[in-house]
Design goal:
Blueprint (H helix, E strand, L loop, with lengths): L1 E10 L9 H20 L2 E6 L6 E6 L2 E6 L9 E8 L3 H8 L8 E8 L12 H5 L18
Antiparallel strand pairs: 1-5, 1-6, 2-5, 3-4
Length: 147
């Protein structure tokens, strides 16, 4: 089972102001935790996400509106993500019980991915087995998803 761990931005923490000693300590703890995930074979991918330069696209009645970031008014801004390969949700929660906290108040969301078997009513076995790389040429399906 693959899960996405969405790290939400800590309230009252401005990373653009430069790192505080508490932030440096939290990042060091996160690096050490990530290394444990790698050694355990759980880690798939991770990245921090910038707020500056971000875009939101609002879809409404067939129209698209692009909204430029940063999104200061947002209370639940996703600051980063990790993808883990775990046996089940209990294992993911066990890992999260050791997840290093950032300074201030923050939140982490845990979301399971759809797997191929979850989409059996939408995708035929032939479609799922067909190779594609997103560009219309023959290639491998992405390792991170079923699309």
């Amino acid at each position: 089972m693959r899960v996405m761990v969405l790290g939400k931005a800590a309230e009252g923490v401005d990373v653009s102001a430069g790192p505080t000693p508490e932030m440096l300590e939290a990042f060091k703890a996160m690096d050490e935790f990530t290394e444990e995930l790698v050694k355990a074979g759980v880690f798939v991918a991770a990245a921090g996400l910038k707020n500056d330069g971000a875009k939101r696209i609002l879809f409404e009645d067939g129209r698209r509106t692009v909204i430029d970031g940063p999104f200061a008014e947002t209370r639940e801004l996703v600051a980063g993500f990790s993808i883990w390969e775990v046996k089940d949700m209990d294992e993911a929660l066990a890992w999260l019980s050791r997840y290093p906290a950032m300074p201030g108040k923050s939140e982490v969301e845990l979301r399971p991915f759809y797997e191929a078997e979850d989409l059996a009513d939408f995708i035929t076995p032939e479609e799922l087995a067909s190779a594609r790389d997103g560009g219309g040429r023959a290639g491998e399906r992405g390792k991170l998803g079923v699309a």
